[in-house]
Amino acid sequence: MTAPSAYLPQRFGHSIDLDLSKNEGRPGSTELLAAVEDPTELLRRYPDTSRLQARLAKLHGVSQESVLVTAGGDDALMRCFMARTGRGRQVLTTRPTFEMIPRYAEQSGAAIIEIPWRSGPFPTDAVLDAITDTTDVVFVVSPNNPTGAVANESDLRKVASEIALVVLDAAYAHFADDDLTDAALEMDNVVVIRTLSKAYGLAGLRVGYLLGPADLIAELSLYGSPYPVSSLSAAAALARLDRPPSDLDRFVGEVKRERTEVTRILRDLGCEPLPSQANFVLAECADAEWLVSGSAALGVGLRRFPERVGLENAVRITLPGDQRDFERLVHTLGTVLAPEALIFDLDGVLADVSRSQTIAIIETARSYDIEVTREDVERVQAEGSANDDWAVTKKLCSLAGVESPLKEVTERFETVYQGSDDSPGLKRHERPLVDPVTWRRWAGVRPLAVVTGRPRKDAEEFLARFDLLEPVSMVVAREDGPLKPDPAPVRRALEHLRVSRAWMLGDTPDDVAAARAAGVVPLGVVAPGDDVTRTRATLVGAARILERTVDLEGLLP
Fold first, then answer.
1. N or C: less crowded end of the chain, CB within 10 Å?
2. Residues 183-192, mean pLDDT to the nearest whole number
3. Which residues sit opposite 419 in a β-bridge?
4. Tally of domains within the chain
5. pTM score, two decimals?
6. Which of 323, 197, 200 lies closest to 254 in space, CA to CA?
């Protein structure tokens, strides 16, 4: 027997502190935990969900026998598969839809018929035409996940009239213009899946429930685990349900406002958002992978579906329902898709310093009878202070057991790098990594800034020597304040350019850290002479790593 495919939640190679990839609601108040009575006793006893069952029955105006508490909506869904279908049978749903439906069909051995439904009215006629004698269940997800499209009461009644069982997954019903739950409860062959994970913000508790005719609920209760929800989860869920409805109404209202706004913003940014009545918006984007990776580099998690047919270029964005988080989301979308400026590190990005500064570090160390390699230099730069060659040199000396004042190390370095009347300096070997024509073309579209740890005189001398200085709107140099990874020099560039959205290209972890902390999309580049594998390993926080600086051309919007 072939093992079923694994469920793989979205993974990020970045540190995410605003995760909008899972449709979770706003976190509940810590008062919920304080409201749990005698938690110690709850921990030692098997769960009793009868109070929660009664509270949910009251909420929906049904008998307790018409409610089954489950471990989230997933458990409710799985019970329907276990009870009503199996090998040699078939179920019917739409495509795309909630991904656990085809997974549970696979696990149960049932064939699945999927009717296309991307947007617009529910495909009622196509669903009815697809029903056969072997069709056990029709699953209707409304609002649909991941599209946000909705069915109406007429659709539901027509389908229910032609099949033994309809399962209405109404996980996002709070956010829809019309909640089909009451209409579904009038039908004797429809069960409704609800959850406290979305609008109530309790995804971590894993509390869901089934509503429907008492005989159907009794049948479904025979399947699955006898204690699906923990005592603490049930108690906290009760506390949440007992809070004033106005709290839920405010959150739902905020989500709806954000939904309208983000739909407009995405359209203005060149994406194609689908109409949604859920707490998320699905949008077609020219480069979905870039939008997700660029947002992740700024700490914002979005969801894409690269393995799902028809969704390869789609990105799903959950609405946070919080003004501050929403403002951050809007800033992130604009920064990734429509940067107002480009910021560049100098060494290794605009200047090939593989035969100048790197060699100067090695030669300065050698003046102290210390032998270091290019790999040693890369390793120390990856640990920090990569924008200060003098500090890197001093650290390498210290690691070899030689302590020398920074002033002395700096003087020796500068002698090797700058040269003297008797000996030309290594800086003569430096070459540009962007040609003036490309540089001017970039500057013609949006302003350019250079943020470097070099002294201003050295930075501007290099840029002028290769006809790169004139198009630059701003050079932030060593004298202007703290060095990267402090975000101050990047912020200084933003302030001078009078922009808030930018990309920054750098070759060290310090560049990446400074960019992210300043709210700028960090891009990595492999500096000439650097090990590609090591660079990719050290620049894990970058939205994308380029082989060459000029490869930025293919990424620019």
1. N
2. 97
3. 424
4. 4
5. 0.90
6. 323
